[in-house]
Design goal:
3-stranded parallel β-sheet, TIM Barrel, alpha/beta, globular
């Protein structure tokens, strides 16, 4: 059914909003919040409009990056109620990877075709104030072509505190050490009332904004995220998206937006926090609505909307490519954080599996780098003719080759001790 006919069949208020979007009008958070309630044919219309905007803004190319996660420690001085990954410094399951092991993992990833390492971890007590810069320099010496995508805004704040310098000066040090871009995680919902209930003592909204805008001012690109499906309201979600849009208009520094569904199964907030209004993550329709609204609200300023196969699974992520998304993220190789919370979708996706999902959605696969520059396009006839097999396509047992979070927690070689993180 043609888009115009479908819009004629939806409720009047929804039709007026969607027609305005197609005419180029920007929605405010209030109007977007009303669209959070759409169901049935209204939801179908929302998705079709998001997909049309995707087509206009980025076309049919869908990207992925070959990368590896390196979560060098699970020891953290915070007790966030949504995090099943972290352990206290006294836990027998606490681990800490030293600089040599971080470099070894980075080089192994590069040998498998990776162009990026994504490095985020807990805030371990007693860390050497120069640890962050030292591992960046070590990776840059060993693998100068490998992009270092590292340090959440929470880690940036912690690193600046350890060094006794400003956030801006710490970021400048990290850029000099080889940091290439910053994950825009630690965002959850950018509303301090929600943050205080979900993660007391976590980085505040203003501090998160300070880290991000300081990074952008220094030319350091970042991603942007939202974690949804826990205690937040529709209004708080839409305010979050509109804040990101406002920041992007000011700085232009976001490379992408990634919605992250709350994974509840092993999260402390679900098991023992006493949050009576906590939800068990978003429903399927909730995810679809959020992705479509992300395209509608953000697509003109942040054109890359990434579907997280770690959170949603590859099959559902393929469907999200019809709902406004235009990217499937990375191969990851060692995903630990979502897996520890109960996500069931594995720690690795091969490039071939990602390309297959992209083609099945009717799109053109594209290997990209961290900053969304094209590395290689994959026309279907070329891959079929050459029977391409990349290193990661040939791995049948990633846990044996790369390890896993459970194995790492039990590995005596990397057991955290109070002096582990110090110089």
């Amino acid at each position: 059914m043609e888009l115009g006919r479908l819009l004629a069949d939806v409720s009047r208020d929804v039709r007026m909003s969607l027609e305005a979007v197609l005419d180029g009008r920007e929605l405010g958070w209030q109007e977007a919040t009303r669209l959070c309630a759409v169901r049935g044919r209204d939801l179908q219309a929302l998705v079709l409009v998001a997909d049309e905007l995707r087509r206009q803004q980025v076309g049919d190319r869908v990207g992925y990056v070959i990368n590896r996660n390196i979560n060098f420690t699970n020891v953290c001085n915070k007790s966030c109620k949504f995090c099943a990954f972290s352990r206290s410094g006294r836990s027998e399951e606490g681990y800490f990877l030293d600089e040599n092991e971080i470099v070894r993992r980075a080089l192994q990833a590069q040998s498998m075709g990776a162009t990026e390492v994504c490095i985020q971890a807990g805030l371990a007590p007693g860390m050497d104030p120069h640890f962050y810069a030292n591992f960046c320099r070590a990776i840059r010496r060993a693998a100068p072509a490998l992009h270092i995508h590292a340090l959440s805004p929470e880690e940036v704040k912690y690193g600046a505190m350890l060094r006794g310098i400003s956030i801006r000066d710490f970021l400048a040090e990290m850029i000099e050490a080889g940091l290439g871009s910053l994950p825009g995680t630690s965002a959850e919902i950018l509303d301090d009332n929600v943050r205080e209930r979900l993660a007391p003592g976590r980085i505040s909204t203003a501090e998160w904004v300070e880290v991000i805008t300081s990074a952008h001012a220094l030319g350091l690109r970042t991603t942007s995220t939202v974690m949804f499906g826990h205690i937040e309201s529709d209004e708080e979600r839409m305010r979050h998206l509109c804040l990101l849009r406002s920041l992007q208009k000011e700085t232009g520094g976001f490379t992408e937006f990634v919605p992250l569904s709350f994974v509840h199964e092993e999260a402390p907030a679900f098991l023992r926090s006493g949050l009576t209004d906590l939800r068990e993550g978003p429903t399927g329709s909730d995810v679809v609505r959020l992705y479509a609204l992300a395209r509608i609200l953000l697509g003109a300023s942040i054109p890359n909307i990434q579907a997280s196969w770690v959170k949603e699974g590859l099959r559902f992520s393929e469907w999200l490519l019809q709902c406004g998304a235009n990217d499937l993220g990375g191969t990851l190789i060692n995903e630990s954080i979502s897996t520890s919370a109960g996500a069931k979708h594995g720690q690795l996706q091969s490039p071939r599996a990602l390309r297959r999902a992209i083609r099945d959605a009717g799109r053109v696969p594209c290997q990209r780098d961290t900053l969304y520059r094209v590395v290689k396009e994959w026309p279907e006839e070329e891959e079929a003719a050459e029977e391409i097999q990349e290193p990661l396509d040939q791995i049948s047992d990633p846990v044996t080759l790369f390890g896993s979070y459970d194995k790492l927690k039990a590995d005596a070689r990397f057991r955290f001790r109070p002096s582990t993180g110090s110089g």
